[in-house]
Specification:
Length: 768
């Protein structure tokens, strides 16, 4: 459903805002309300519906929600309560704002304080860095607007369970910022559960307002905002402002470093100095040089796909600045850096007096207000179109064009190069994503599965909040009438038995579920409030100052060299007991290895990649290097015969090219493995090792004829199924169910298999 127009007349939102809000708008010297702000006024003031405000970054979504919300609060203040119940419900937090990042809460706290300071509407923030005295003040005298993370809201419910009804007694609105970041995730399931639990305590439905970047298929987002009732959620989708978009895709061929690792070690052992540039690949040096010469002197964001790449390029650019004897304008920004280092980078971005370039991960992708930047650089193919759109929205916010420079490296091709690499897939994926972005396509938000790990957490939290619950109440609160609707009574009983066997819960003689000894230890640990698992990390200390944290998934010992925070360090000591690594400055270093993975590539992206390879048009935004790489990829596509046949022989192996997304590819790989084949998933293709082309076709035909398997039976054949925080406490049956819901798409895989076989030329089927 859409909101904002009635009887063909444009809504006059400004006139409906409270006079004090209108005065604030005049003070800001706004000429008018933006599209989303104008159209959101009526449904929010109605106060009886859920609403999604979907618009590009920096389009005023925060004001679109809070101008009418504050109008409603001011109007209520000026109107005497009509009943005793209304008077009793006037106390407590009135607006609950949830955001995925502490930094975003800090940023929005400043913006909302500026709006609310003359409205007599208090604004509070609550997260791990906020002083306990400020939190105690909220508990003692809850009021106004509360800005909080899901994890802190979880802690509030667990620690102050009996007070929840009083704290949120006056709640009138819930606002979820950057809602798209929660869709299909464990944090998203946690957030849904927390909001449902608050409504259960209050015994009334609270209007929810989701603020999101532009969505593809909004049906999934509506269902997320109000589970089992998404059809009634209204939408305000901001009209496109016609902003000019500028792209450049730069292609590079990988070049080996001047010195191999063994050669560098030999020289260093002989007392010779090895410069970092001598052990850095030529393509990285070329990209760093282009970034330096093109971006220096202006404000830009340089997005990398990993923290390791952030450290690599921040270091290269800092060294390039030192060599040119100019101030270093390039600073790193990622989640493992200390709060001080991150905030220093953010403050430099807000300071318009000195230019700065932040080399960052997705930490600067979301709505932290760092001001406008001139352009965006992306190192490597982006994980999703939605992410690319979100990042691009960070530039061009001064009325100019939104500018993106995308840098892609491909390995050199030889006769031994495997077909997937010969297709130049990273370059082609980048082109496909740009074309889909220009066509206004986004990935659809997925449900993300059963979220059984988060259900375990929420059950323990519910027991802690109420001091115990019955099994019937627990299932009703969390499943049958809650966000975990995919878990039926039988599955829930299996979950309880598994938790009981692990001593996470126990049952009293009167049937009440209580925390077991192991459950109490889990709930009482600070890490309980997060629905996601965090790696064991060491603190990095230099001269008594914390630089950040590092997950040590590999040996680190005294004398090791490290690049972190854009600088080079030498390890002095490693304190394994206290998990502390002490560092001193050094001239050498290597970027650390961080855990983590990229996003899931969607079906439509892979389909468009095939279209790009099969086509002849050359996008005008490619540089000479990218044009050459695309030509090589298309030549390989034709040489391999993939335009006519998706199944090709490669030595003793057979390669399948369904051109489908990661989930379908994983399902097909598992099904073929279960049928006795050795299968590896290689991005755009599946490799059936030691299998002739004829044998591969026979195997696929047999699978198709047998019909789609039971997803649970297919999941049972998978290797490790422990992916989320509390999966270890699930029975094998529940692990299979969780894996199937999270990772498999059997109907989509079988449709892809049928299409794949149909695309094989008839004569090839006869002769195989």
């Amino acid at each position: 459903m859409t909101a904002g127009e009635e009887d063909g007349r444009t809504s006059t939102g400004f006139a409906r805002l409270h006079p004090r809000i209108q005065h604030w708008i005049w003070q800001q010297r706004w000429d008018d309300l933006r599209d989303a702000q104008e159209r959101a006024v009526a449904p929010i003031l109605a106060g009886d519906c859920d609403l999604i405000i979907s618009a590009a970054t920096a389009s005023g979504k925060t004001e679109a929600a809070f101008l009418p919300i504050c109008t409603a609060l001011l109007t209520a203040q000026e109107s005497p309560p009509s009943t005793a119940d209304d008077a009793a419900g006037a106390d407590g937090v009135q607006v609950l704002y949830l955001a995925p990042l502490k930094a975003l809460i800090n940023d929005q706290f400043g913006r909302l304080e500026a709006l609310c300071e003359h409205l007599e509407l208090p604004v509070h923030r609550w997260h791990g860095d906020v002083a306990g005295s400020r939190k105690a003040k909220v508990i003692k005298d809850p009021s106004g607007l509360l800005l909080i993370t899901p994890e802190s809201l979880e802690a509030l419910l667990v620690i102050h369970g009996p007070k929840v009804g009083r704290i949120f007694g006056g709640l009138r609105y819930v606002v979820i910022d950057e809602m798209h970041s929660f869709l299909g995730t464990e944090r998203g399931a946690q957030l849904q559960s927390l909001l449902h639990r608050i409504e259960l305590v209050l015994r009334r439905r609270i209007p929810r307002i989701g603020l999101s970047a532009t969505l593809g298929d909004a049906s999934g987002a509506r269902e997320f905002l109000r589970p089992a009732d998404g059809e009634r959620v209204l939408e305000v989708v901001a009209e496109d402002d016609g902003q000019e978009l500028q792209f450049q895709l730069r292609g590079y061929e990988a070049e080996p470093p001047l010195l191999s690792e063994s050669e560098a070690m030999a020289l260093e052992s002989a007392g010779k100095v090895v410069e970092p540039e001598d052990v850095t690949t030529g393509d990285r040096l070329a990209i760093a040089e282009h970034l330096f010469t093109t971006l220096r002197g202006s404000d830009n964001l340089i997005f990398a796909n990993s923290r390791r790449e952030v450290e690599t390029y921040a270091d290269l650019l800092a060294r390039r600045s030192a060599q040119a004897r100019v101030p270093n304008e390039f600073v790193p920004h990622h989640g493992s850096l200390s709060k001080d280092l991150r905030e220093d980078a953010e403050s430099r971005l807000k300071d318009r007096s000195v230019p700065v370039n932040a080399v960052c991960t997705s930490t600067l992708e979301m709505g932290i207000d760092i001001g406008s930047v001139n352009s965006i650089a992306q190192l490597g193919a982006p994980h999703t179109v939605a992410s690319l759109r979100q990042r691009l929205g960070r530039s061009g916010r001064r009325g100019g064009a939104a500018t993106l420079r995308l840098y892609v490296t491909e390995d050199s091709i030889s006769p031994q190069t495997p077909p997937p690499d010969a297709l130049r897939v990273e370059l082609v994926q980048s082109i496909a994503m740009i074309e889909l972005l220009l066509g206004k396509w986004n990935e659809s938000p997925g449900a993300g599965g059963l979220h059984l790990s988060t259900l375990v957490q929420q059950l323990l939290s519910l027991i802690a909040q109420h001091g115990g619950v019955t099994a019937v109440h627990g299932h009703r609160a969390l499943c049958s009438q809650g966000p975990f609707a995919g878990v039926d009574a039988k599955m829930f009983v299996g979950l309880l038995r598994g938790l009981g066997a692990a001593d996470l819960i126990t049952q009293s003689t009167d049937g009440l579920l209580l925390l077991g000894l192991a459950g109490e230890r889990i709930v009482n640990h600070y890490s309980f409030y997060a629905a996601f698992a965090t790696a064991q990390e060491y603190r990095l200390i230099a001269n008594g100052r914390s630089l950040g944290t590092l997950p040590l998934d590999y040996p680190l010992m005294s004398g090791s060299l490290l690049i972190f925070g854009g600088r080079r360090w030498k390890v002095i000591t490693v304190d394994t007991r206290n998990k502390v690594v002490e560092l001193i400055r050094s001239t050498g270093g290597r970027p650390p290895t961080f855990s983590g993975s990229g996003g899931e590539v969607a079906d439509e992206v892979r389909r468009r990649m095939r279209s790009v390879l099969a086509g002849a048009d050359v996008p005008t935004y490619l540089n000479v290097g990218a044009v050459d790489l695309l030509a090589e990829g298309r030549l390989s596509f034709q040489r391999l015969g993939l335009a006519a046949d998706p199944v090709i022989a490669w030595g003793a192996d057979t390669l399948l090219f369904p051109w489908r997304g990661d989930r379908i590819m994983s399902t097909l790989a598992l099904a073929l493995t279960g049928a006795g084949a050795e299968v590896a998933q290689d991005g755009v293709c599946l490799t059936m090792t030691k299998t002739t082309r004829g044998q591969a076709i026979d195997r696929m035909t047999e699978l198709l004829d047998a019909g789609p398997p039971d997803p649970l039976a297919l999941a049972a054949m998978a290797g490790t199924k422990v992916a989320e925080k509390y999966d270890d406490y699930l029975t094998e049956e529940l692990q299979n169910a969780g894996f199937a819901a999270r990772s498999l798409d059997v109907p989509g895989a079988w449709a892809a298999l049928e299409t794949l076989l149909k695309e094989i030329p008839v004569e090839q089927l006869r002769d195989h």
